[in-house]
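Our consortium's second objective concerns turning raw sequence data into structural hypotheses that experimental partners can test. To show how far this objective has progressed, the report includes one record in full. It was chosen at random from the queue rather than selected for favorable results. The single chain below, 250 residues long, was entered without modification.
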Amino acid sequence: MHMHDVYASFYLFKCLHCPGSVAPLSRQPMKLIIGNKAYSSWSLRGWLACKQSGLPFEEVVVPLYDQDWDKRRQGDEFAPSSGKVPILWDGEAVVWDSLAIVDYLNDKTGDCKFWPADPVARAMARSMAAEMHSGFAALRRKHGMNIRQVYPPSTPDPDVVVELSRIMELWAQARARFGGDGDFLFGAFGAVDIMFAPVVTRIVTYSLPVPRFAQSYMLAVLQHPFMQDWIAAAQEEDWVIEQFEKPASG
């Protein structure tokens, strides 16, 4: 299957309950507030983390940068994050920032759904997730997420090429050392794949060049049932943010 066709295809998924789960009972599900699914890469990470946890949660999508955005982000639900998304409410607990959401849900589900069990693999996985969290500014700035578009290939800027090379290096090392027979960076789908999922969509959207091994990994990410659900919802959104509806900016 061609990567561009994955945006329009769907797959069934049976979620396996983790026997180590220790999530406490709650009178109400968690609430995750996210931005537009077509554009919000950090929202995608937070949402994938909630889906990976297997815990029930209410999803609230708020359109970014519409006429009510400034007023909405000043509300009480957004106060802890200073108006940023995603933000996760779990009773009186509130967690913002996607990587913090991953770790919160990892603790809540018995430390068995997000990170590799092997300590050496886990050390690398945490380092990769943190590097994704804090780095690759050129790729993010010049190739914003837009799941509804696939642009013709163009030559990326040199700083983007450097960052793509580093990402490919990380992916290759993880797959070679810890991928095993699985389809993802550390075998099973987990936190690192969640953190890099928006990068996968950017590579497809802007037709960025990647080696063959990376294409196989990207297909696995895009075909994951959680990603298929997100992509489908993004296609159905009516909101359009013009600043994100253009080819890469140099």
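The partners drew two points from this record. Residues 158-179 form the longest helix (22 residues). The chain is about 45% helix and 5% strand. Both points have been shared with the crystallography group to help prioritize constructs.
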